Amino acid sequence: MRPAYSERPQLVVEPVARLIEEFSRLPGIGPKTASRLTFFLLRAEPELAHGLAQALHDLKDQVRLCQRCFNITVEEFCPICLEPSRDQSVICVVEEPLDLLAIERTGAYRGLYHVLHGHIAPLDGVYREHLKIDELIARLRTEAVDEVILATNPNTEGEATAYLILKDLVPLGVRATRLARGLPTGGDLEWADIDTLGAALEGRREL
Amino acid sequence: MYVSNLSLRDFRNYRRLDLELASSTTLLYGVNAAGKTSLLEALYYLATTRSPRSSSDRELVNWQAEGEAGALPFARIAADVQQAHARTRLEVLIQLRADESSTQRPQLRPQGSAQKLIRINRKPVRALDLVGQLRVVLFTPADLVLVYGSPAERRRYLDITLSQLDPHYVRTLAQYNKLLQQRNSLLRAWRERRRPLRGIDDELGYWDNELTAAGGYVLAERLRAVADLNTIAGTLYDTITGSGQQLAIGYDSSFERPTDTIEGAALSQRMLQSLRALRRDEVQRGQTLIGPHRDDLTFAVGGINLGIYGSRGQQRSVALALKLGESRLMYERSGDMPVLLLDDVLSELDMQRRKHVLSSIRHTGQQTLVTATDLSDFEPDFLQQAHHLRVENGQIFAL
């Protein structure tokens, strides 16, 4: 990323220029937004900047991955794995911690999770070994699990990831399921896009 | 179908244009670089979401374009398409991206991308949804590369024709190309020994299945189109040349396809088998070696391949037969005539071919836009029937 004031760097003093450059490395932030954020912090109360710095520091210092399911946590295990009331016989496999939160919000799932931290994307250089797939298989060998729900995204990369995991589940004799694809609740057939409607037709079920 | 109204803003050399179009033949004339081709380009863009001449959308935005009230510079193409009982409003906005500072002199704007916003009847849609709303066939002097150029040109001809006719085709093809890229990256990683070969069949399994499922459909549709085109364009070639000979169009697949069927599922199955047999070669080369992306068309008359041995005149006749055939195929499949865009093609043709083109567009009542620098290319009664528009410096004047 090219720094915002590259043409005449002497106009902006080093600490300001450095923060602008750091900000513009974040996703969705260009040089203009980076400058705006920087000058906002420059004018703001010192507590704001210090609080932000501390939060950033703690983020990298304290947060780590659960030893068992690779959810984000500050302990050795994540709160979900530590909760004894959760159904230990089902594992829901998701791509990212944010997907886990989405499923938790439904309140409809009481089992355990396994976070892969990504999906198969050869174009971006993400292969099997970059995901927590071997760790999942290891879990299935030691834990008494009846069902694995493959809740990767319903796009090409997510499907490829699910396919690859399924290949490993078959010899273990674990039941594998996939989230259904179809129409959104409260939706209108007329406005559904072709692909979604097609998937809903394919996945129709007996009443 | 026909376009009743076209409006442009900051598109190429048009700052602002609002143009009514006749449902019959319109003749656009003017000196070079006046904006004749850009007008056809705008219609072609609405039909296919691509420009026939430039690969970068940002080039379409006028150099002096400025955004309004802090918005970024953009070009806008909008048209009303009239069909039997309905009118559809198509609109494309091509907006330069924010990271390219507009304070610099526009000619010096760094290379980069532009984003497209597309609306049908004012409702935002995806680019793929626009394709097929307006169907066009573009004739340009560059059509000759269809015959002697690279296989990619011939695949593009089939793809653009079928995409405009079949919404499922354009989606499946996009999906196929995406899968292909992913699969190729995977193969490349093995070729460069960045990854262990263990489990290669499992890892390729998903991509093999999906690629061949999409590939089978694409291939089946192409074969069906080629069969139809043989009937249509084969005869057109005879009419154009008056040679008493028919053109035979062949489809050259990159793998041995079943001889008894052109059904998609069967083609997918055969492609899958062929892929698996090629595992070692593919890993060695680091790319997908078979599939619709490696196929080609051949053109032969009397058993002689015209792409290699044809004279310039024969090749020009083939290109013309393919284009007129494309228009006829669209009519037969959809029951509606596409809009013909003839960009400076008549000057390239001899008397007989020119006559054939003019007579085939004049009697159909099909909307046709013809560009020319020299009116002496046309016969008097053609000139009399056509609507004349003079194009000058990004502006259009009716007579």
Number of strands of chain A: 6
Shape of chain B, please?
globular
Percentage of residues in helical conformation of chain B: 40-55%
- How far do the termini of chain A sit from each other? 56 Å
Strand order of the largest sheet of chain B: 2-1-4-5-6-7
Mass-distribution shape of chain A: globular
CATH class of the largest domain in chain A: Alpha Beta
Number of DSSP strand runs of chain B: 15
Mind describing the biggest β-sheet of chain B? 6 strands, antiparallel
What radius of gyration of chain A results from the CA coordinates? 22 Å
Uncertain segments of chain A: none
Oligomeric nature of the chains: heterodimer
Structural class of chain A: alpha/beta
Average pLDDT of chain B, rounded to a whole number, is 89
Separation of the first and last Cα atoms of chain B:
25 Å
Summarize the SSE layout with pairings.
The complex is a heterodimer of chains A (207) and B (399).
Chain A: H1 14-23, H2 31-43, H3 46-62, E1 64-65, E2 72-73, H4 79-82, E3 87-94, H5 97-106, E4 111-115, H6 133-142, E5 147-150, H7 156-172, E6 175-178, H8 194-202
Chain B: E1 2-11, E2 14-20, E3 25-29, H1 36-48, E4 74-82, E5 87-96, E6 114-120, E7 123-125, H2 127-130, E8 136-139, H3 145-148, H4 151-165, H5 167-191, H6 200-241, E9 247-252, H7 264-277, H8 279-285, E10 296-301, E11 304-305, H9 306-309, H10 312-334, E12 339-343, H11 351-362, E13 368-372, H12 380-385, E14 387-392, E15 395-398
Parallel strand pairs in B: 3-13, 3-14, 8-12, 12-13
Antiparallel strand pairs in B: 1-2, 1-4, 4-5, 5-6, 6-7, 9-10, 10-11, 14-15
Task: Describe it.
- Chain A is of the alpha/beta class and 207 residues long.
- Chain A folds into 2 domains: 14-62, RecR Domain 1 (Helicase, Ruva Protein, domain 3, Orthogonal Bundle), CATH 1.10.8; 72-206, Dna Topoisomerase Vi A Subunit, Chain: A, domain 2 (3-Layer(aba) Sandwich), CATH 3.40.1360.
- Chain A has 8 helices and 6 strands.
- In chain A, the strands form 2 sheets. Chain A has a 4-stranded parallel beta sheet. In chain A, strands 1-2 form a two-stranded antiparallel ribbon.
- The radius of gyration of chain A is 22 Å and the shape is globular.
- The termini of chain A are far apart.
- By secondary structure, chain B is of the alpha/beta class.
- In chain B, the strands form 3 sheets. A 6-stranded antiparallel beta sheet of chain B has the order 2-1-4-5-6-7. A 6-stranded mixed beta sheet of chain B has the order 8-12-13-3-14-15, sandwiched between helices. A 3-stranded antiparallel beta sheet of chain B has the order 9-10-11.
- The longest helix of chain B has 42 residues, at 200-241.
- Chain B starts with a strand and ends with a strand.
